[in-house]
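Work Package 3 (structural annotation) set out to generate three-dimensional models for the target panel prioritized at the project kickoff. During this period the team completed the workflow that converts sequence records into discrete structure tokens, so that structures can be stored uniformly alongside our sequence database. As a representative example, we reproduce one entry of 616 residues exactly as it appears in the project archive.
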Amino acid sequence: MKLTRLLAGAAAVAAVAAGTTASSSAQVSVPLPNLQLPNVIHNGVQTLTGNVLPQLDKATPVSPAPATQRMSIGVLVAHPHQAAENAALRAIYNPSSAHFHQFFTPKTYAKQFGVTPTGASAVRNWLTSHGLHIDYTSGARDYFLASGTVSQVQNLASTKLGLFSFKGASFLANTSAPRVPARLHVMQLLGLNTFQRYHTMYQEGQALGEASGAPNIGAQTPKDLWSIYQQPKNETGHGVSVAILGNGATDSVIKDLHQFDKENGFRQLPVEVVHTPAKGDFSDTSGNEEWNIDMQAIHGMAPGISKEVLYFSPTLADTDLVASTATWVNDPHGPPIMNASLGECEVTPLNSTLNNPALDPVNGNENPNALPVSQGLSNSSEPAQTQLLKQAVMEGRTLFAASGDAGSSCTIIYPGTNGIGNYVVPLTEDPADNPFTVGVGGTVLYSDGGNPAQRTFEYSWTHGGGNASPFIAAPSYQQGVTNLNRNCVGSTQLCRGVPDVAAISGDVISNGYTIVADGADSEGGGTSLSSPLWTGMWARVVGTSPRRRGYGFANPLIYTIGKNPTRYAQSFYDITTGTNGLNQAQTGWDYTTGFGVPRLSGLLKNVLAVSHRRHR
């Protein structure tokens, strides 16, 4: 199955936003997607048409980019044997195949499907011949980080870069699509603009919480969630390591984790830090609250895990975080599970159409000359992350990602609006919407305060991310799910729906999870919390598997269980109340909380049963 990307007019997009549906009997033969940007080859030169910001003319040009300013770019190279790779992927997740769950190691994957040493050498020579320094190369030789001056990058990519201003922020951007030698099979150049970057979901939640001034009086402790989510007492993730994707400094968040462990009676958890690239400025502390939530939610849900591994970049730039993802995917000793409480809007070919004021009040009604800052941009990291996460799935790994805190839409934090909102345009957050990822939505949970705590009421959070992607086709594991009923724009193909599952996010005002921040007790919330909670709970599941490597990518198992009414009732508590803007919670899977929140003991029992049945 290829990732469906179809152009259509504003009316079609409006129909998606309004929830218009059509039946579809389309079947997909490949379980997961393979995304490539539309590139043009002429006379041995490849033009990367997707690698330019749309509507750049709406920003204010300041000057040509300073020729001696240094910058970093990421180079994504296509794999040479994609048909064979997709066939191997199908076999790994086909219970009838002799290769079912015969996962690749990073070494065997790189040898069989990665860019060849000769091809990688050609890319390196191209970069260094233009004066750039290669800072990082992925294990599969398909992603390179390189740094150089603006002048060197312009010569490399046969484009010009300018300095622009937008909403008080300055950024660099290329003014035309880059051109590269076709023989190199380059799919994408990241970093040609400094406008795009990931945002942590915590940033969104923090803005609303600070604005309200209300006390957070409804935080749940780890042990509260052990009982409410019915987590097995004897399976606590023993021996499993868990990864976290992030950036910046780590000393204080590790110290806070140790304090959290002490307060909750847990053993002090070892933490390993893996920097990509190995050298860089890792002093940024702006994400500390996010990493506190991630680290403490994971260990709180799985106190028996062996360690947490922080795959950290210097910044949240697309170039950097893709490299850290590549480091995890290619780490032969890397954890089988990773959490990403960050994201950016999905790629869309309809930026001009979606900038229609009737569809986008943020960019249209408030500022008719604005860049589409709340929409996906055509040269985001999505293609690179898709290629890397496909490798992760073929290695039996699972990424859990927050679905976002902007309800049935998505938002971007830098530059532009900050805070929780619903921006009407029905786009989803990447990587939570990636079919190689488990997208995690949010709920508001009230307990009785007992010991053990019991659920009083739980409903979908108003701002929990969730919707149908207008452009990403639903993977085969999602086909046939009740309430998955929205087609891709201009197509009869059902589109990918997120989230897949959910857990407490709180409402950011008075409901959440107890953490330690800067040595003091605090609270965390948003889908920044929901995703690491699921990451930790899945570590309990992985802990029951042979050699602690897990049962492969979690979503095929989750959906197999969710489609069986008996197993579903044993494994999930269905959230049937609440809305996130365009979507209403419903019985069964829905666009607000997926299958709902876990009854983890039942889910674990059914994972074991389904896996045993498939391996007989």
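The mean pLDDT is 85.
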